[in-house]
Specification:
The protein has helices at residues 9-15, 20-24, 27-41, 54-59, 80-88, 94-111, 123-132, 140-148, 150-173, 191-207, 227-232, 246-252, 272-286, 306-318, and strands at residues 46-47, 63-66, 70-73, 116-121, 178-182, 215-219, 237-240, 259-263, 292-296. With 319 residues, the chain is an alpha/beta fold. Helix 7 crosses helix 9 and helix 8 (140-148) packs across helix 9. The longest helix has 24 residues, at 150-173. It binds coproporphyrinogen I.
Length: 319
């Protein structure tokens, strides 16, 4: 459950007075926050408390996470010179990644057998934040750059693939049992742009853990038309948001790919009978696929009642 922690009072208490990225890079705190939703909701796996921009921060990019906004860059990355400066920061070293590895190792120890999912942002979603300078609805500047200056775009997404791949690899080496690549904003692209300008860098990011033998989940929102392309960059499991029913997603993927997600976050605030019927429908349609990791189709809205999440988990377990 992405950003699940935000709805928990114990999360808000633990984070009190600590900036988001500082919390991510403080191993004991990141570990404690990772464990909170597992303790409270009895979910079957944990997702590491971190953020997709952590590897950018570790590489030396001027980035912060503004409360209520999301990741914001000191300056947008738009020109060949801007990208050259990023590339001069070099690949991430084990020393730079040490707080991440330490946070994962502490968490895996404390989880006592419950699997930990490691994650990273896909190169397009990271590049979208870098080029736009912050959150954006249409990702216009990023989509302009990929066509206006394809060489600069390729250099940018290759650099992003390498830092995000190193971040993912560090988590798996420290004990994460599965790895999820979030291309949250890939849905702003058509299939032709995705295939030509994004898929090679995503394949490069996933390739950085190909030798480690963990399952790779690939998720985006608004990606109903991209599911096959997103699988074909090297994913074992495809995340599906709430827009496409899982039996149809399974049909599009040829019936051979396990799926993840699909519960509509909007329904967490609906009356229980409405939410219950929806969860039952998602689980029933997911039976069409060779596997289904039940999860939300996107993040938990921060104002969600935590007891509703616990009840959803109990319902899914009962099914
Ligand atoms: O539940 C958890 O805490 C899991 C840890 C986690 C994950 C998997 C966080 C903590 N962030 C993420 C991934 C992430 N971060 C994604 C991919 C998943 C998704 O689409 O939601 C993205 C796009 C981000 C970028 C980001 N970071 C946003 C979205 C901004 C936008 O463009 O709309 C936001 C709001 C953040 C901040 C953030 N990251 C995580 C938390 C708990 C928060 C909230 C900040 C806070 O609590 O102060």
């Amino acid at each position: 459950m992405r950003q699940a922690g935000r709805s928990l009072p114990e999360y808000r208490a633990a984070r009190e007075g600590t900036a988001m990225l500082e919390a991510c890079l403080t191993p004991a705190l990141a570990s404690e926050i990772t464990l909170q939703p597992v303790r409270r909701h009895d979910v079957d796996a944990a997702i590491f408390f971190s953020d997709i921009v952590v590897p950018l921060k570790l590489a030396g990019v001027d980035v912060e996470i503004k409360p209520g906004v999301g990741p914001v860059m000191g300056a947008p990355v738009r020109t060949a010179d801007d990208v050259a400066r990023l590339r001069d920061l070099g690949p991430l070293t084990a020393e730079q990644l040490a707080p991440v590895a330490e946070g994962v190792a502490l968490t895996v120890g404390a989880l006592g057998g419950t699997p930990l999912i490691g994650f990273a942002g896909a190169p397009f979603t990271l590049a979208a934040y870098l080029v736009e300078g912050g959150p954006s609805r249409d990702h216009l500047a990023a989509r302009t750059l990929m066509h206006a200056d394809p060489a600069t775009w390729t250099a940018l997404t290759e650099w992003a693939a390498d830092v995000t791949g190193a971040f993912l690899r560090a988590q798996v080496l420290a004990g994460a049992s599965a790895a999820q690549l979030f291309d949250s904003w890939a849905g702003s692209l058509g299939l032709a742009d995705y295939t030509a300008h994004v898929a090679p860098a995503s394949a490069r990011a996933l390739g950085s853990i190909a030798d480690l033998g963990v399952r790779k989940v690939h998720f985006g929102t608004g990606t109903s038309e991209l599911l096959v392309a997103m699988r074909d960059v090297g994913a074992d499991v495809v995340g599906v948001d709430y827009r496409l029913p899982l039996d149809e997603a399974n049909r599009r993927l040829g019936g051979s790919t396990p799926l993840q997600g699909n519960v509509d976050p909007a329904l967490l605030a609906a009356p229980w009978p409405v939410l219950e019927a929806h969860v039952r429908d998602v689980v029933a349609r997911g039976e069409a696929a060779p596997g289904h990791v039940v999860n939300l189709g996107h993040g938990v809205p921060p104002e969600t009642d935590p007891d509703v999440l616990t009840r959803v988990v109990q319902l899914v377990h009962s099914l």
